[in-house]
Design goal:
heterodimer, A: alpha+beta, six-stranded antiparallel β-barrel, 10 helices, 35% strand, globular, disordered N terminus, B: alpha+beta, seven-stranded antiparallel β-sheet, six-stranded antiparallel barrel, 17 helices
Chain lengths: 469, 766
């Protein structure tokens, strides 16, 4: 705690000094200088006063599938109230897979909350507090306009880093339009980058401007080795998605199977001569885009007559959103430039399926199973389009003993071809429930391009033995 | 009633028989006791005689500059060279032990037998003494009396050395002449040897009675007789003194085993001393002559290897072949001029190294001349190189040589580099036994003669060469990726036997043991399957316990490549490969599940993050066996067909498989910092690429290069350049060249990895 305190002080001091230097430029005299400092404190106090009462400490009990088994675990996150009747925003990665969500409000009262909806691809979730009847209206936060943010503008991150509730960290907006879709699954929006400390537990908490308006939702810290590097979802994105979640419980997107690339891609040092349009870098096979006749290298110039362009990577999310907003099953008209030749193609996207597959704990075999998804596990999808893979193996355990590994695709189980988690579960239950059967089962496993039969011997019950000890 | 009578009769018969046996036993017993008593008396007499007849021979070593140096550097360095250059490791060992004794001011002791006034014989084990290192030799009798003795003669018929005392000498016991052989002859033997537990305590061991079994004289002209087997000389023995029942010495066994029945040949002392013998001056003269000839006939040969940068140089390999050390890229040895400008290298490189040989050169005077590699022989370690257009010193009468004879001394000479100089080491030795070896061939038991040394008779004439025999390839060994078999099976051959090898080497050369291009050396003979070893559990579950012998043998096929021998023979996934045979190459090999197999199920998939290969290495038990055999052979595979539920056989002719990721030629564009390879068949399968899908695969990207700036990485596939498909490496090269010619700044590539593609700008010029 002491260290954190020191850091805050050291961060404030140069900011003050900077203002002091800047001040004589606009007016003169010591009085003015002093006023700026006083103003600044007031600014912080005011901003804090507007948001602080609506800050929520989110404590879900999560059902996690990790290291080959299902476990329950309490996680810490943050959130803020956006409606007097108890709607709370937080991150999807805080609220997902929760069996129970408890929220602690400013008055130290704890309430249960239910999930209204979540969206993995923007990492947003909407909760509703289960308030007692006739509960007085709750204080709410106000969203600011994130498009008006400027780099260098002061912001505060509020939340519960590492479970230390109601903490404020302070910094500036480092960048207002950061694209992080190269390495993450967050491909539909840009991000705010800030040097306000964002630690685990800050997730889902508000990033607040000097007016006390929520301009972002703190989501990602810089990770190991990074300092002063945090990312927040811009408030305009949050507002839009939360609205959809409130209405529909989830965000529907269309999927066409296109890989898009910016025309001037500074990350990959690759530059296309055109200045308009979106470059098709890849077309999934099979996919609606392929059916539509789209090819690598095509430039998409307009969708249903509306211009679409991604000159820089920062414009990619908007282009993707445009395609994702198309109505599934309905043909859209694409104006395409194919090496100088204009073309019009009809693209009929489909609804984008679940981002990731379902989980299942094959307890008796000491492993967990997950559905293969083209979005969450593209490398497995590449080898096997429809089916399940081993999400984790418990150590020590039967699956581990048999030589099964994380990311092995289960092609067949006991002679039955497996195409879904449900089917796996059904066969699993039948096998495990069969008391007469020898406790051994044949799995056909695919690892990369290779297929191999493996016998899983589950006579030993590792968990029971663990309990006996 | 009838049964009861029968029983009575039987009992009576048993009683009678018992009585007869008892009487006979009593008579035999007294005879046996008498014989035992006689034997005991004879043994006591024998031991008494032996005490007088034996002396200890004490050799005091001295310090000798060159030997001391050689023995002190004879550690690792020479151990390595022994492997390649035929270093006389036995000699070095002996030298080292004598130097060690000298350092500790100790002597070496052997047992000598006094065979006449002041005459002592020492059984010669044939490996040769380091006389340079002997300062003084003394004979010590049982009473502790000492006499100084000197080398007198080297016997040439019997395997013994005669010493003579300088003045007065030990008396010994007179030998009886005219001993008659017969089936009833009883001989008693005794030896003198050091106590195992207390090496300073010496004792006489009596060998007991020994009746000749095979009493025929070995040959008519020499008086030799054959004694029973147990009277051998041990490590310290001067053979065995043979005595009659009265303890009178009648002969001596100095070692040497007859060929067929394992009996030892013993001599009458009179005969032994009257047969051939050489003065030591003659012996040393023969050694000197051998050295001189060898230095004249040997030439230094250098093999230069292709450096494999990817594998990080050679590590210690070239060093093991006499190169300058770790990381050196050449190996040097010596070759014997065998006429016609050809040099015989009596050693063999490891096959994998031989295939990497880029250049062979021979040192003529101070110059290195380029030579041509002719052959690596199948049946023994040896290679032949040719030096066209250069006149070499040639041996005379090479193909008239008659080889060397058992028990007769001969001189071996080995040429090697010693302490920075070409050195010929020669020594008079002999071999005393033959044994049956590979393919029932009878070969001499040679230990002291290094492989590759040239043999001379005691007149200094060329006699033959010592070569290491190579066993035919055994599939079991091949599976272990080894190509050295029974390296110690040496043979002493007259050059006359090798004539055709030198004049028509192609007849005796192994077809695939030769320098090869990088690509050829990496090519593999294939069957065309991916497989995993079966397990006990799997065999049970899949109900294939019987064909796989309970899961002990079998490689289960997981996939079969198109156009492969396996595909053509109808082998399918889920079939189990059981046994592999290559006609004319020893016994079939069972594909034992626990051994070998195919490594890396799923390649490196488990750790794969974008730039990892996902295909398995092509080198596995099966390809190693097939490749070491080489293309052209008929092979047969026995497998269990999963579809038909029965064991089937199929045969095919071995042939190289298509180029794979490892063997395919790499093309590196230095300016781009980009190395590419064709998308070979296994890569194509692993990346689920259609047979006609275009592309070349990136094998390496240099740090900071244009390729890296374009974010290219290993194992990405370049499918298009400027929207045109890249069919192969050649196509890539041409396209880039064309763009450069057109002064284009960059090439627009389309790359894909694991089904995801993107565009990349590759900057063409710096």
């Amino acid at each position: 705690m002491n260290n954190a305190g020191k850091r805050l002080v050291s961060r404030l001091l140069p900011a003050v000094a900077l203002m002091a230097v800047a001040a004589p430029g606009c007016s003169s005299g010591n009085r003015k200088k002093k006023e700026s400092v006083i103003d600044f404190r007031a600014v912080i106090a005011r901003a804090k006063g507007r948001v602080y009462p609506a800050i929520v400490f989110v404590k879900p009990i999560r059902e996690e599938y990790s290291a080959g088994e299902r476990k329950k675990q309490e996680v810490f996150g943050s959130g803020a109230i956006i409606s007097p009747d108890g709607l709370v925003f937080t991150n999807a990665h805080v609220a997902e897979k929760a069996t129970e969500i408890r929220c602690v409000l400013e008055d130290k009262e704890q309430y249960q909350a239910e999930l209204v909806g979540l969206d993995k691809e923007t990492d947003l979730a909407l909760l509703r507090l289960k308030l007692p009847e006739n509960h007085p209206p709750l204080p709410v936060v106000e969203f600011g306009d994130s498009s008006k943010l400027q780099e260098g503008q002061f912001v505060m991150a509020m939340g519960s880093p590492f479970g230390f509730t109601r903490s404020i960290s302070f910094g500036v907006v480092s960048n207002t339009r950061r694209y992080i879709g190269f390495k993450t699954e967050y491909k539909y929006n840009l991000w705010l980058q800030t040097d306000a400390a964002i630690n685990p537990g800050n997730s889902g908490g508000p990033l607040v401007d000097s007016e006390g308006r929520v301009v972002g939702i703190n989501t990602l810290g810089g990770g190991w080795g990074a300092e002063g590097l945090g990312f927040a979802i811009p408030s305009n994105v949050a507002r839009r998605i939360l609205g959809t979640l409130r209405e529909k419980g989830k965000v529907h997107r269309a999927w066409a199977g296109l890989e898009l690339q910016a025309l001037k891609d500074f990350d990959q040092n690759t530059f296309h001569k055109a200045n308009e349009g979106v470059l098709v870098a890849g077309v999934d096979d099979p996919s609606p885009a392929r059916d539509a006749g789209l090819r690598n290298g095509d430039l998409i110039l307009a969708v249903n007559g509306k211009r679409i362009s991604a000159r820089y990577v920062e414009q990619l999310p908007a282009a993707r959103r445009m395609l994702a907003a198309l109505a599934p099953g309905q043909a859209a008209e694409l104006s395409v430039d194919r090496r100088g030749v204009p073309k019009t193609l009809k693209l009929t996207p489909v609804a984008k399926g679940e981002f990731e597959g379902k989980d299942f704990d094959a307890k008796r075999w000491d492993m967990t199973i997950k559905g293969i998804s083209r979005y969450a596990t593209p490398q497995l999808y590449f080898f096997h389009k429809k089916g399940v893979y081993i999400q984790g193996v418990r150590w020590p355990g039967n699956a581990q003993n048999a030589g099964l590994r994380t990311a092995d695709i289960v092609v067949a189980l006991d002679g039955v071809n497996i195409t879904s988690v449900e089917q796996f579960e059904k066969v699993y239950r039948k096998i495990v429930g069969d008391k007469k059967r020898e406790k051994k089962v044949l799995l056909t496993v695919k690892r990369g391009p290779d297929t191999k039969p493996i016998v899983l011997d589950y006579r030993k019950n590792y968990k029971d033995e663990g309990n006996k000890r | 009633m009838t049964n009861l009578r029968r029983l009575h009769l039987f009992s009576l018969a048993v009683l009678l028989a018992g009585a007869v046996v008892a009487r006979g036993g009593e008579e035999k017993k007294s005879e046996l006791e008498a014989e035992r008593a006689r034997a005991a008396a004879a043994r006591i007499a024998a031991m008494e005689t032996a005490r007088k007849a034996f002396v200890k021979l004490v050799f005091t070593p001295k310090w000798e500059e060159e030997c001391a140096l050689e023995s002190s550097v004879s550690g690792q360095d020479y151990a390595r060279r022994a492997f390649w250059q035929g270093y006389p490791s036995g000699v070095v060992d002996r030298m080292s032990s004598l130097m060690e004794l000298h350092r500790n001011r100790r002597s070496q002791t052997s047992a000598g037998l006094v065979v006449g006034k002041g005459l002592i014989i020492l059984a010669d084990d044939g490996t040769g003494y380091e006389w340079r290192l002997i300062d003084k030799i003394e004979a010590v009798d049982a009473s502790g009396k000492r006499w100084e003795v000197e080398r007198h003669k080297l016997l040439t018929d019997a395997s013994a050395i005669v010493f003579k005392s300088k003045g007065d000498g030990p008396e010994g016991v007179p030998f009886k002449d005219g001993f008659k052989l017969g089936l009833n002859a009883r001989l008693y033997g005794a030896t003198l040897r050091a106590d195992y537990q207390r090496p300073d305590q010496w004792c006489v061991l009596s060998g007991g009675a020994c009746a000749p079994w095979d009493s025929r004289p070995v040959s008519a002209d020499r008086l030799r007789f054959v004694s029973g087997g147990s009277l051998g000389g041990g490590e310290y023995a001067a053979g065995t003194l043979l005595m009659n029942r009265e303890g009178v010495p009648v002969g001596v066994n100095v070692g040497g085993v007859t060929l067929r029945n394992g009996n030892r040949v013993a001599w009458s002392v009179k005969e032994m001393l009257s047969k051939g013998a050489l003065d030591y001056s003659r012996v040393h003269e023969a050694e000197r002559a051998a050295r001189e000839q060898c230095l004249k006939l040997h030439y230094k040969i250098r093999f230069e290897f292709r450096v494999n940068k990817e594998a990080g140089g050679y590590g210690g390999w070239a060093g093991r072949y006499g190169g300058a050390g770790a990381g050196s890229r050449d190996a040097e040895t010596y070759g014997l001029s065998v006429g016609g400008g050809r040099l015989f290298v009596p050693h063999m490189l490891k096959v994998a190294m031989l295939r990497k040989v880029e250049k062979v050169s021979v040192k003529i005077g101070e110059d290195w001349k380029k030579a041509r590699f002719l052959a690596a022989f199948k049946n023994y370690n040896g290679m032949l190189v040719e030096l066209p257009g250069v006149k070499l010193n040639e041996p005379s009468g090479l193909y008239q040589t008659r080889g060397v004879q058992m028990t007769r001394p001969f001189v071996f000479c080995t040429v090697r580099e010693l302490l920075g100089e070409t050195n010929a080491f020669a020594k008079a030795v002999r071999y005393r036994a033959k044994s049956r070896g590979y393919k029932d061939r009878i070969r001499p038991e040679v230990s002291g003669v290094p492989s590759g040394s040239v043999l001379f008779d005691m007149d200094g004439k060329l006699a033959g060469i010592c070569v290491t025999e190579r066993r035919d390839l055994s599939l079991q060994d091949l599976g272990r990726d080894s190509d050295y078999y029974m390296g110690s099976m040496k043979d002493l051959l007259p050059f006359s036997r090798l004539k055709e090898n030198f004049t028509k080497p192609e007849k005796f050369a192994h077809p695939t043991w030769k320098p090869m291009s990088k690509q050829e050396s990496k090519r593999l003979v294939w069957l065309g399957v991916e497989f995993d070893p079966i397990t006990k559990e799997l065999a049970k579950t899949l109900k294939v316990k019987k064909p796989t012998r309970g899961g002990a043998i079998g490689y289960m096929v997981s996939s079969v490549y198109d156009n492969s021998p396996a595909k053509k023979m109808g082998i399918k996934p889920q079939d189990i490969l059981l046994r592999l045979e290559i006609k004319g190459m020893g016994d079939p090999v069972h594909l034992v599940a626990g051994r070998g197999g195919s490594s890396g199920f799923g390649g490196r998939y488990g750790r794969m993050r974008g730039g990892m290969r996902t295909w398995r290495p092509r080198i596995n038990t099966i390809t190693v066996i097939l490749t070491t055999a080489g293309p052209g052979y008929e092979a047969e595979i026995v497998y269990y067909s999963n579809a038909e539920k029965k064991v089937k056989k199929a045969s095919w002719k071995l042939a190289y498989g298509p180029l794979d990721f490892n063997s395919a030629d790499k093309y590196k564009d230095e300016k781009l910092g980009l190395s590419i390879k064709p998308v070979t068949y296994e890569v194509r399968r692993a990346l689920a690429m259609k047979p006609d899908a275009p592309g070349v695969i990136i094998s390496k990207v240099e740090q900071g290069s244009a390729a890296q700036l374009a974010r290219l990485g290993p194992y990405m596939v370049i499918t298009h350049i400027e929207s045109e498909p890249v069919k192969d490496v050649e196509g890539f090269k041409k396209k880039i060249a064309k763009l450069r010619e057109a002064k284009k700044e960059k090439a627009k590539l389309q790359v894909s990895i694991m089904g995801k593609s993107r565009f990349a700008d590759l900057k063409l010029e710096d």
